[in-house]
Write a structure and sequence with these properties.
This protein is an all-alpha fold. It contains eleven helices and no strands.
Length: 344
């Protein structure tokens, strides 16, 4: 992880005190301009480790599906029970190994996220401290507290899953669908067709959520400023508080409705996919064109697809919300930069 003094030259002197910029000097902010810069500066080495762990998880995750198919087929074909028992033992060992891999990855994700939160808070404080010589446009105290304590937390927490989560869930989706296509291309095509409408409505609903998140943050900042500043008229201040608290309530309710409506639609399409596979698979089994183990593997595979797809949508939702929140932070910090001197 880079030292903050390296991230923003001149931010602090060897004694640990804040160094003021020279008159007319434009000081580079320690906080990167975009979210990808934050992910890189707060710990790119940790991201490489998470990428490796994610790849290992989704490559191992496909094996239980094949073991389930073989166990079911062997049981229906009257294969010796000793072979079935060994396959079941191997399945249990594989589940333990996969669980340990996920445990290690999740712990390391948590460590990466917390390190990013600490880095971002220090960088924000450093940027604010750059301009305490009176050159900067001062921030209201409520905004400074909000930036450092509440707004930095969810943004830094996203860093731990920013790269590894789409890699893991996307790898799971591709590997499972690839395996299902190998088993029966027509059934895989039916399942993919049922899932495809989500590609359209998920981004549209998420954009609506993002707009409400941005308005909620702006309203909360205004409320923080008004609470910290001593009100001149107590009654007028109370009316203003009530109005802004009501606005936040309405925005939160809008977010909840959109979020849970999206979850409802995603679950509905998952069950429609299961129904389609059962119908098509049942037809193939009845006509001797596929094995019952293949249908069982498809049902289990769709369950495994539903989880990663939902996690991928959650990641996309969190990415867009985090981009909105981070953009609001950088907008505030950009107002601290003193204007460049006019060229002679």
């Amino acid at each position: 992880m880079r030292n903050l003094a390296e991230a923003s030259p001149g931010m602090s002197d060897p004694g640990g005190t804040v160094a003021a910029p020279l008159p007319g000097e434009v000081v580079a902010l320690a906080v990167p301009r975009n979210l990808s810069g934050l992910i890189f500066h707060s710990g790119w080495r940790e991201q490489i480790v998470l990428v490796v762990l994610s790849g290992a998880v989704f490559m191992v995750n496909i094996l239980p599906l094949e073991l389930q198919r073989r166990i079911v087929n062997d049981a229906t074909e009257g294969v010796d029970w000793i072979r079935i028992a060994w396959l079941a033992v191997f399945y249990a060992l594989l589940a333990i190994a996969l669980g340990l891999l996920k445990l290690g990855m999740n712990i390391y994700r948590g460590r990466t996220s917390e390190s990013a939160v600490r880095w971002l808070r220090a960088a924000i404080l450093g940027d604010i401290g750059h301009f305490r010589d009176g050159v900067r446009r001062p921030l209201p105290p409520g905004v400074e507290v909000s930036l450092v304590l509440s707004e930095a937390e969810p943004i830094g927490s996203f860093v731990g899953v920013s790269i590894s989560e789409p890699l893991l869930q996307g790898g799971l989706l591709l590997s499972v669908f690839g395996y299902l296509t190998y088993l029966n291309p027509l059934m895989a095509l039916v399942a993919a067709a049922v899932f495809s409408p989500q590609i359209v409505f998920v981004p549209l609903m998420q954009n609506a959520i993002n707009r409400r998140v941005g308005r909620r943050i702006a309203t909360l900042r205004t409320l923080s400023i008004e609470i910290v500043d001593a009100p001149v008229d107590a009654r007028q201040a109370e009316r203003s508080y009530d109005r802004e608290i009501g606005d936040v309530f309405a925005l939160n309710m809008g977010i909840f409705k959109l979020k849970y409506s999206m979850n409802f639609a995603m679950n509905l399409f998952h069950h429609l996919g299961v129904a389609a596979v059962l119908g098509v698979g049942g037809y193939f089994v009845a006509h001797g064109e596929t094995e019952i183990g293949t249908v069982v593997a498809f049902i289990s595979g769709l369950a495994q697809v539903n989880g990663p797809w939902g996690d991928l949508v959650d990641w996309y939702r969190e990415l867009r919300v985090t981009q909105t929140k981070y953009g609001l932070i950088t907008q505030v910090l950009a107002t601290l930069t003193p204007p460049a001197p006019n060229p002679v």
